[in-house]
Design brief:
Blueprint: E1 2-14, E2 20-32, E3 36-40, H1 47-55, E4 62-67, E5 70-71, H2 80-89, E6 90-93, H3 107-117, H4 124-131, H5 136-139, H6 148-160, E7 166-170, H7 178-195, E8 198-203, H8 206-209, E9 215-220, E10 223-229, H9 230-235, H10 240-247
Parallel strand pairs: 3-8, 3-9, 6-7, 7-8
Antiparallel strand pairs: 1-2, 1-4, 4-5, 9-10
Helix pairs in contact: 3-4
The structure holds adenosine-5'-diphosphate and magnesium ion.
Length: 257
């Protein structure tokens, strides 16, 4: 069953000096229930713009996003209940975990706050910490006292506290060392398997999407250029641009394979 449908998403930015730039041009894709789609392309190809249109941080000029048969309004709706319901559909994890973490709160406080906001049992904070591999010591730590990898684990737990249908991860491992990247990718695959949450995984690095996604959408200068099963796109890329991206992948992939 299809969980998310993005159709004809298009965004043109006005540039400060006059003129315009089309960051995403007619981008369409679907994600099945529990599926995982990778969106890859060089820096500037429009990946973040697409991710932000999905969650509602950027209103598209054209196009629609439908989750579980319900069309999402391009902007956050008025009213607490509607906003919370919408947040439950899609949660985002950013490259910089501080975007979603309050520096004043310990990991446990952060998760309890999110759980409470969404009417869930605050005691679930323990399960969430467990799920992302954070222990008793990290539970009482504030974001600045955690390592980069631990901080991203907490940001993932914070997103899961909402119990979303889809996690959108924008370069979520890009700032981490290769060995830590592999751990977080492994964690995401595990979370997907155990919870059935769907993933949209944005990365400039093809190697990173390899083991967490079933299909890949390749973007270039705002245009989708190739879309297919991950194994096929990575082993037999059709588009010259995808071939170029693949050639740039270092032999040692983050998964260690
Ligand atoms: P990616 O995530 O693939 O690096 P982005 O979606 O961030 O790509 O950006 C795509 C293009 O749109 C880039 O050329 C970028 O400079 C431009 N862009 C992104 N956000 C804005 C904005 N708010 N105003 C103007 N141009 C933007
Ligand atoms: Mg980006």
């Amino acid at each position: 069953m299809t969980l998310l449908t993005a159709e004809h998403l298009t965004k043109t930015y006005r540039l400060p000096g006059g003129g315009t730039h089309t960051a995403a041009d007619d981008v369409s894709f679907t994600i099945p229930e529990g599926g995982a789609l990778g969106v890859v392309g060089e820096s500037g190809s429009g990946k973040t713009t697409v991710a932000r249109m999905l969650v509602g941080l950027v209103p598209p000029d054209r196009g629609t996003v439908t989750v579980a048969g319900r069309r999402r309004e391009p902007r956050a709706p008025r009213g607490r209940a509607a906003r919370l319901a919408r947040a439950k559909e899609i949660q985002m994890v950013f490259q910089d975990p501080y975007v979603s973490l309050d520096p004043r709160l310990t990991a446990t406080q952060c998760l309890r706050t999110a759980l409470r906001l969404h009417g869930r049992d605050e005691a679930l904070s323990r399960d969430l910490l467990d799920r992302v591999g954070l222990g008793a010591r990290e539970a009482d730590a504030r974001p600045r006292d955690l390592s980069g990898g631990q901080r991203q684990r907490l940001a993932i737990a914070r997103a899961l506290a909402v119990d979303p249908r889809i996690l959108v991860l924008d370069e979520a491992v890009a700032a981490l060392d290769v060995s830590i990247q592999a751990q977080i990718l492994h964690l995401l695959a595990e979370i997907r398997r155990d919870t059935g949450v769907a993933l949209l995984f944005v990365s400039h690095d093809l190697a990173v999407v390899q083991h967490v996604t079933d299909s890949v959408l390749v973007m270039r200068r705002g245009h989708p250029v190739e879309h297919g099963p991950t194994s096929q796109v990575l082993t037999a890329p059709e588009h010259a641009y995808t071939q170029k991206l693949l050639a740039a992948v270092p032999r040692r992939s983050p998964s260690g394979v």
